[in-house]
Design brief:
Layout (H helix, E strand, L loop, with lengths): L13 H18 L2 E5 L5 E5 L4 E7 L2 H12 L6 H30 L3 H28 L1
Antiparallel strand pairs: 1-2, 2-3
């Protein structure tokens, strides 16, 4: 004795499915969709996909940007003071990164040994501040 068919016929109410999909789309629109995008300066941005706007700009590492993105995707927001603190730390990090590039250029191109020694000391201090800022950002986000 064989089986005549294996697929059960189900009654699908198309209007009910359309109504459920509309509710799902409305919920996603209210909540928002956030993604991480790399910017032209080498940092990472948290981008609101539906509004097509940048929420947090120039975050120094992808890990920090992804944690902030997950925070936003859960429907949570940062307080405005926290957001300002994140932006200030990010801009300070990028300033120190530019300073390190200048110090490296001075070290390689200078013939003055005093200038080279001063640039090396300042570069080490800037790198220490950068690692401290990354730790601060990791604890905030």
């Amino acid at each position: 004795m064989g089986i005549s068919h294996t697929k059960n016929k189900t009654n699908i109410n198309k209007a009910d499915i359309a109504r459920k999909l509309d509710r799902l789309v409305d919920k996603v629109k209210q909540k928002g969709v956030f993604v991480v995008a790399r910017n032209a300066q080498g940092g990472f941005d948290v981008f609101d996909y539906l509004k097509e706007s940048v929420i947090l700009a120039d975050l120094p590492s992808r890990d920090i940007a992804e944690r902030a993105c997950n925070h936003f995707n859960r429907g949570l927001r940062y307080a405005w003071r926290r957001e300002l603190e994140i932006k200030a730390l990010s801009s300070e990090y990028h300033k120190l990164n530019a300073d390190c590039s200048y110090y490296m250029m001075t070290i390689f191109n200078s013939t003055n040994t005093d200038a080279v020694a001063i640039a090396e000391i300042r570069k080490e201090a800037a790198e220490g501040k950068m690692s401290h800022i990354l730790k601060q950002l990791s604890s905030i986000v």
